[in-house]
Amino acid sequence: MPDYGHELTFGTFITPTNADPQVPVSLAVLTEEVGLDLVTFQDHPYQPRFLDTWTLLSYVAARTMRVHLAGNVLNLPLRQPAVLARAVASLDLLSGGRAELGLGAGAFWDAMVGMGVPRLTPGQGVDALSEAIDVIRGLWDTSSRSPLRAGGTYHSVDGAKRGPAPVHDAGIWLGAYKPRMLRLVAEKADGWLPSEGYMEPGDLARGNASIDAAATAAGRDPREIRRLLNLSPGSGSLTGSTSAWVDALVALAVDDGVGTFILGTDDPSVIETFGTEVAPAVRERVAAERGVAGTVTGPVRSAAALAKRVDGIDYDAVPAGVEAVEPGDRRYAEVRSTYMRRGAPGLVLRPSTTAEVASALAYARGQRGPLAMRSGGHGISGRSTNDGGVVLDLSRLASVEVLDEATRRVRVGAGATWGAVASAIARRGWAISSGDYGGVGVGGLATTGGIGLLGRLHGLTIDHVLAYEVVLADGSVHVVSASAEPDLFWGLRGAGGNLGVVTAVEIEASEVPDVVFAQMVFDATDPAALVSRWGALVQDAPRELTSFLHLSAGGRDRGPMAQAMTVWASSDTAAAVEVLEPMLDVAPVLQQRAQVTPYAGIIGPVSKHHDGGAPPVSRSGLLPRMTDAAGAALGDLLLSGEASLLQLRATGGAVHDVDASATAYAHRAQEFSVTSFAGRLDRSGLDDAWDRLAYPHMDGLYLSFETDPRPERLLDAFPPATLDRLRALKRTYDPDHVFDQNFPIDPAG
After folding, report:
1. Euclidean distance between the first and final Cα of the chain, in Å?
2. Which residues belong to any copy of the FAD-binding PCMH-type domain (predicted)?
3. Cα gap 269→266, rounded to integer Å
4. Mean pLDDT value across residues 311-317
5. What residues pair up with 565 in beta bridges, in sequence order?
6. Which sign, positive or negative, has the C-alpha torsion 361, 364, 369, 374?
7. How confident is the model at residue 738 (pLDDT cuts 50, 70, 90)?
8. Which of helix, strand or coil describes residue 77?
9. Which pTM was predicted?
10. What is the CATH number of domain 9-293?
11. Could you say which of 2.40.320.10, 3.40.830.10, 3.40.50.1110, 3.40.462.20 is the CATH number of the domain covering 515-597+617-718?
12. Is 471 helix (H, G, I), strand (E, B) or coil?
């Protein structure tokens, strides 16, 4: 197996001298400019003439956009592995997935001992490196919720919290030459990174053979291990003319399986030649030879990962360029779940462009199992993941772009979160009413409704949408608005999940000065009185006031409690106090605070990693108006033992200004959205209690919070005239019912 079929990459190996600290930085920037893929630096922390390599890597990451970065190789005895794991993951997150981990056991022991490191024998160094890899991988493994206990004699952790995980599959590459180190590469590493100058003729082939045999014995495919090689101009393979370099590197790729060539030089002219002449020629020649030989190329998964594949999904047919995450992949834990539901999809596709969304959708239509769409991944209802099917995850389409300052027109990728949007436009004094949590995804909220903390003054999120970019079931891409395909534009505002995959939203932001944000915690021992008084105040308040109320049923250690999140959409504190003070009388106050803040201070960016849990059990309804009878029913529901949590969100004011027929969200007369969550997996108890107590007072529902699968819920979500119109749209735009997971509207009726 001389050619492992790895995608060829090329990089530089730069000396981190500090005489002029900008020199190694400029060489790194040049590496990117000439089209190379990787920048690496020596790591000798005991060398006073060198910059600290990790600091330099971080600085270079900020100066570049595309190249990957690694130590070559980092000195493990002077880099504590638990801290190193978090450092690599952090740099990977900050750089957008460009950090790799080159790692070595250490060689210059006199200098390391001088820095305070206990001396190890070569055998002890291998053992220490093996333990360090276990610690690093364990901390990167966020699929487990248990604290990490790993390592042994030289490096160990006992109860360390896991995370963060790198944003991409950061490789662990080992600098290795001796038999025990080569076996360690085979058993635990992602790459072998020797230097040609330290090797005798035939060592590369012998090393490959040793790694391949040990990998096979360990149950790994040898192709899982990338072969990298440091090369020096003027010696070894890089002698003679540029064409001779090309010949030598082609032979190293085809005959010795080298997939990454790293040029050790500080000469900018040599770097430029390597990037503009040598690398393209080698790629072209190797591609031609692989074509003739029929070499299988591309990433290779382990036997353990392959065993987790789901029957009925053609993993080898995933469209080129679309990132695919399978069960068994390191990143699977990051993308399998939503905020409320722990999913087990057979495949998660993560396109980064609209064209990739179209190709991913075409592919997904031919696979088994359900097809779920996910924007930001918040997913209260749990429908943006699944078990055994395909998930189309749009989180990489997360741009926020101001299109027109004068009209406050903003284009937002469907995979962005509203917290990121709020932060991006806050400096202009703008805001978009969008839920009550920064981790909510743009695509879901902007096609369902969008009940937000500015809603009574500014309406629903969908009321400000000007256009959608959407991929339809047939793969065609449409930009729809009030003037371009207005019927589809109507349907996407309220039933978007049924009609296509929205990839971007153009929306009008509102001018929003600083607001007053008040939080109050109440004793909810008498929830009926609390809900009735709070609701009466909110529904009759000036439009500047929007309030959400969350009630917990409590447990063995405490009774029911409630928290009100209230926004006065103005910085006029005197007016805010006048309206907020009566709210302190709705129930005994346990805690209160209020502050003047930008809207982005309430709806700020949050982590998008979700672990989920059992499928959520919830019911949703829209309350036309708060009455004593409705308050009493909701209080009884909270105390019934079937509801662990009750949430009420104000939906009055400006929401009522829009005609019910103007959007597919037709519920324009109700004052509150009400949601209840069960505290158990069996939904029969909550369904019975909700149907008896709350449902008689409701008129409609908000579909993002409803998990009752009974078909009559569709009639609650969409009134008859709206549903008839949506069915007609389905017959036009999705006649095969591809989008059938989010309150599915069967085109056949």
Report:
1. 57
2. 340-512
3. 9
4. 95
5. 519, 548
6. negative
7. very high
8. helix
9. 0.84
10. 3.20.20.30
11. 3.40.462.20
12. strand
Helix extents (H) in 261-384? 268-273, 279-293, 303-306, 332-335, 354-364
In the numeric block, the tokens 């982590």 are attached to 607
**pLDDT, mean of residues 405-414:** 98
Cβ 579 vs Cβ 541: under 8 Å: yes
Dig out the tokens for 569 from the structure: 């959409």
Cα gap 312→304, rounded to integer Å: 18
Q: What are the structural domain ranges in the chain?
A: 9-293, 301-512+738-749, 515-597+617-718
Q: What pLDDT, in 10s, does the model give residues 76-114?
A: 999 999 999 999 999 999 999 999 999 999 989 999 999
pLDDT digits (tens, 9 = 90+) for 244-289: 999 999 999 999 999 999 999 999 999 999 999 999 999 999 999 9
- Judge whether 181 and 174 are in contact, CB under 8 Å: yes
Q: Which residue, 331, 351, 342, is CA-closest to 385?
A: 342
- Please choose, from the candidates 20, 31, 585, the residue with its C-alpha nearest in 3D space to the C-alpha of residue 262: 31
523-544 pLDDT, tens digit per residue, is: 999 999 999 999 999 999 999 9
Chain position carrying tokens 């101001």? 402
Residue 475: which residues within 8 A CB-CB, separation 6 or more?
Answer: 358, 359, 361, 362
d(CA 80, CA 176): 19
pLDDT in tens, 696-712: 999 999 999 999 999 99
Instruction: Please choose, from the candidates 227, 232, 226, the residue with its C-alpha nearest in 3D space to the C-alpha of residue 263.
Output: 232
456: its two tokens = 């009574």
* Residues 535/541/545/551 CA torsion (nearest 10 deg): -10
Q: Which of 461, 414, 464 is nearest to 436 (CA)?
A: 461
Pair of tokens at residue 95: 């750089």
Q: In what order do the strands lie in the sheet with 226-231?
A: 68-71, 38-41, 9-14, 260-264, 226-231, 191-192, 172-174, 101-104, 74-75
Rounded distance between C-alpha atoms, residue 378 and residue 343, angstroms: 13
Whether 173 and 100 have beta carbons less than 8 Å apart is answered as: yes
Q: Is the predicted pLDDT of residue 573 greater than 80, yes or no?
A: yes
What pLDDT is stored for residue 608 in this prediction?
Answer: 64
C-alpha distances out from residue 306 to 138, 348, 589, 601, Å: 21, 15, 56, 45
Cα 546 to Cα 463, 653, 654: the distances in Å are: 17, 9, 11
User: What are the tokens at 114?
Assistant: 């001088």
The one-letter amino acid at 186: A
Angstrom distance (rounded) from CA 101 to CA 82: 13
Top CATH class, 301-512+738-749: alpha beta
Sheet holding 323-325, edge to edge: 323-325, 347-350, 390-393, 371-374
Quote the DSSP letter at residue 415: T
Q: Which of 517, 623, 635, 505 is nearest to 566 (CA)?
A: 517
DSSP strands (E only) in 287-343? 323-325
HSE, CB side, 13 Å, CA atoms: give it for residue 719.
14
Q: How far apart are CA 382 and CA 705, in angstroms?
A: 9
Spell out the residues 6+ positions from residue 575 whose beta carbon is closer than 8 angstroms to its own: 544, 568
Q: Where are the beta strands (DSSP E) in 16-152?
A: 38-41, 68-71, 74-75, 101-104, 148-151
Q: For residues 341, 346, 351 and 357, what is the CA-based torsion angle, rounded to 10 degrees? A: -100
